[in-house]
Fold this protein.
Amino acid sequence: MKAVFIAYDQAHHEKVIEALDKSGCRGFTAFGNVQGRGSVKGEPHYGSHAWPSLASALITFVADSAVEPLLARIRLLDEAKPKLGLRAFVWNVERTL
Amino acid sequence: MSLYGAAVKRPIMTTLCFITVIILGLFSLAKLPIDLYPDIDTNTIMVITIYPGASASDIEQNVTKPLENTLNSVEHLKHITSQSRENTSVITLEFEYGYDIDVLTNDVRDKLDMVESSLPDDCENPIIFKFSTDMIPICLLSVSAKESMAGLYKILDDNVANPLARVDGVGSVSISGAPKREIHVYVDPARLEAYNLSVETISAIIQSENRNVPGGSFDVGSNTYALRVQGEFDDSSQLENLPVGSYNGRIVYLHDVARVDDSLEERTQETYIGGEAGAMIIIQKQSGANSVAISEKVMKMLPRLQRNLPSDVKIGVIVDTSDNIRNTIASLEETVLYALLFVMIVVFVFLGRWRATLIIIITIPVSLIASFIYLFATGNSLNIVSLSALSISIGMVVDDAIVVLENVTTHIERGADPRQAAVHGTNEVAISVIASTLTLIAVFFPLTLVTGMTGVLFRQLGWMVTIMMIISTTCALSLTPMLCSQWLRLSTHHSRLYDKLYVPIERALDRFDNAYASLLRLVISHKTVTIIICLGTFVGSIFLMRFVGTEFFPTADNGRLGVNIELPIGTRVEIAKESMARLDAQWRAEYPEIEAISYTVGPASSDNTFASLSESGSHIISMNIRLSDPGKRKRGIKEIAAQMRKDIERGYPEFRKAQVNVGGGRNQGMGGQSTVDFEIYGYDFTATDSVARDLKQILAGIEGTADITISRSDYQPEYQVDFDREKLALYGLNLQTAAYYLRNRINGSTASQFREDGEEYDIKVMYDPDARTSIEDLENIVIYTPTGKGVKLKELGKVVQRFTPPTIERKDRERLITVSAVVDGVPLSQVVANAQAEIDNMHLPSGIIIGLSGSYEDQQDSFSDLLLLGILIVILVYVVMAAQFESLTYPGIIMTSLLFAFSGVFIILWLTGHTLNVMSMIGAIMLIGIVVKNGIVLIDYITLNRERGMGIRTAVIDGGRSRLRPVVMTTLTTILGMVPMAIGTGQGAEMWRPMGTAVIGGLTFSTILTLLFVPVLYCVFAGNGVHRIRRKLRKEKQS
């Protein structure tokens, strides 16, 4: 089982949920409005006067086999609108309840 | 959820909400009455007191003074003026505008109750009379007749006046110029004396013969019959054979001593229309009724009324005030439509996409139409003020929508889904959109708080714009994002038409941006020079102020002229008629602009409501002229009036006073020509008279004055009979009896009424006109003693010629004379300044003061009100901006654009030759809100750039370049929205032209300078800020 953390411009929100659905990933936890900026050239998303846009983030725990299709869909999203900003990070889940 | 979130999510609900608003607005629009101005409550109350037999100075001392002293303590009183003339005291109380006149009337009534007991015993109770603009007639109809002239009064009364009076909203209908029928019994004094008869006996006999007496009822057999004596005359000729006495056993008939003349009243007002005798019908409206609606009803009725009239009687229209109102409103509506078109073009040019243009343009009708709901709900009308408000707002209501749309587009271009882009894009700018609306509301809302006459006018403007601004912001935050989410798409390829049409525009705009950026680089490198040049321009323009004259209100060309002419007192009516016929013919020949001309001569009868309110007499002539539509003639109304004044001066030395009044009447507040009234306060008649004459001379020598009149009239010559009381007593007579004998012979005694067709006509017995033409005739009047002995009047007293003092006028409890002049061709302020300089050199007798009133006083009041308002608005705008930027410096920097706005106003007024008046002042006040918006947009983006980490210089240049288009776009929409107002030529355009001009000049000038000066000033202040922080850091390091 893998944990996938997706941070994205809030405009992506609906499309990200759609990608989850299509990849057969039901469960997720979304964090709503969050702030952040990209490590390389990603525009800051602060919701402030200077940087008014905001980001969203969600974390989902999926079966190992579902990771690749999900990432593929998410990559497509990012490539379609590179200016908005979208990143995903995957790591192992050691135990679940 | 936020407003825009909900709107984007529920497009149907949003659309329907706005459609409902539009439907309600259109419904209100259909129901809205049309009027020239917003409802102006009357602020004047007149108190009329009659004290029979008292002279002017008695009235002043015993009636006017005690009343004035008490009434002076009524609250909110502005001025108290009075006229004391023979028998009558008229006190006029002028209150501050904006108070409930009914409450004030009650206060006045209470005060009158208090003082009534201290008035002289014979004095009648004071009558309260509310005066309002409603008294000004709304329609003047002309009636021409040939054969029916003799019976015209009855024909008009039955067939025209009565039906018109029944029209809903019509207050009174008066007929002038159609004399009433009257039956005169002209007695021959010599014969009367020979038969031992008197006017009184004949009068008594006619009265007792012209009778129907019911005799009760009596029974005959089984029936009851009524018994009557029918003695009333069926025909006036029956009078001739009336036995009036017997002499030497022979019956004396009326025709033996008198002739019966069944004709018309002797002394009446005559009306001439287009040079021919006719009648005039004057229609006044009820207080508060809508003049356009009434006059429409009246005009609709006229053809039907015409059908009932004899074929030679023709009704025409001399003046229809609603005509002017309708034309004025129509030309303003045209202005609004042009403004709409211009704004649309600007938006399209800058955005280049029709969908985006449509989204923005939709805001205009929504906001404008919604404001009609307010007008309807508050019982207001479509008038100059409310329509100007629409015209002003068109350019401003789109601003918020433009900001929202621009940001949403940026989001879409970055790749966001239109729905998401609409919500997030709106979210980002919502606060700044609301803040910029708040600055505008900070400008317009205080307008609703102005007091005085200007307040009455601009309260509505303030409310309208405030409401439209709120609605447009609501629209920008709900309808605009919703439409963006539905209509906007990311499109990468364009049609060929787009390439052909828009690519060159786009290129030009880019070049414009770059040029501005280079200019900005240049001025930032030369800060000191730029600041000096800009401030120098401002200071220089302040000097222009000296060359821009000031006045109260611009003169409107409503195509109406009123001419009042006074001949020397006592001039016979025939002489007046002769001069007028000449003048009338001359003017009709020389002025092709005249469409209708009519005048009335002579004393008005007492049942003519309209005439009894104005002055009339055998020597007074009032003339009404209607000119063709202003657009259709070359000469303006002022020019024509000036030429007419010259004509009178040159060709008619017999006129003692002549006034040519633009707009129909003098001192009607807005629209007429300005007047300067100099008030000479002083008790002594001769001293003030001579000062008034000197002042008239002085005024006549000053350029730009016309129609100079002195309010106090001359001493009036008259004949008086001084009875010797002792002789009267010897003959057993008293003064009253003797005086009545005199009156019955000259004025006539009304013996009885002749009835025909349900109408009553007076039968008047008096001396034959030939027997009352000289003083001897008067002296030979025979007065009968109680014993029946006849005594000639000359044995009882003397007939002497005397002069009675004229009306005594007072203002604020002091005697005064007003010398007033119409200001023509030169600004009011200049005339006042020149006159004041001359007056300062005058040697005034002690106790005499010269004060100023008229338009100048109103102007001063309004200007000080507006100045105070301006200061209040500047403070409010500063507060709003300081709150938005959380800074005290930035709002200060932005506020400097105000200086250039005012410079621009002065420069354009100077260039176009307009004056600074209430309308241009309002324009200048609106500028406060409009010009700071540019500064806000600019500074906002520059600070944003700095927050994003740019250096001051780069932040300023980049910010300037990127904000240039929105600034230029919103400025252009506002300026072009005003252009139709500034160059309009329709009826009434003179009123709002100065306002449009002032806004255009101020906005253009201030935008250009703001785009250079504000960035430079920002650099200076921000640079200082950085230095300060560095110094502080250095100090901290050292310690």
Q: What stands out?
A: The helical segments of chain A are 13-22, 64-80.
